[in-house]
Amino acid sequence: MKNRFLLLIVGSLVGLGCVASAQQADIAFGMGTTLASSNTNTSSLQPQLQPLKGGAFPSVSGDVIFHNRLGIGAEVFWRARQGVYGGYQPYRPIFYDFNAVFQPNFGNKAGAELQAGVGGLASRFYNYSQPNCGVFTCTPYTTANHFSVHVGGGLRYYFWHSFFIRPEAHVYYVPNNNEFSNNTIIRAGASIGYSLRP
After folding, report:
1. What predicted TM-score, i.e. pTM, was given to this entire model?
2. What's the pLDDT score for residue 42?
């Protein structure tokens, strides 16, 4: 417990140091949905995997911009309500990514945001009647974790002071994604955020 608390303090101090030396820092909250093609496997010998598409996906993102509109950012988004996998299994996908960010401006009120990076997909499959127990805790789910590559972007418009709205689209490539029928997932949505600027 002491190590986690110390790590949290050190991480917070490093984060504050990065923000203090930055040109800009942003935080945003959004909503979107995922798009993917349907399963094209028609063989009766292989199990039918379902596509990872549909549903509401809230998101939280943030970035720190340093020199020449370049910076770093992170994002997490998840399915708001559990889906049903295979007609019976409750599940919830959670995506996260860490990115290089480029934010060119188109004047004082508008700009773009381009991102590229890596992250992961954690698919939680729930079984409330048989929890997954470890040494100290029990959870009602098991998680399938997969590496992912991410590219995306959006258009940013400052509608009031430092508050902005950002329509956006993202593409995630998840190799070895054995749970769903698609390795490529598209997310489309919009975010509302705030910029800390000098």
Report:
1. 0.82
2. 47
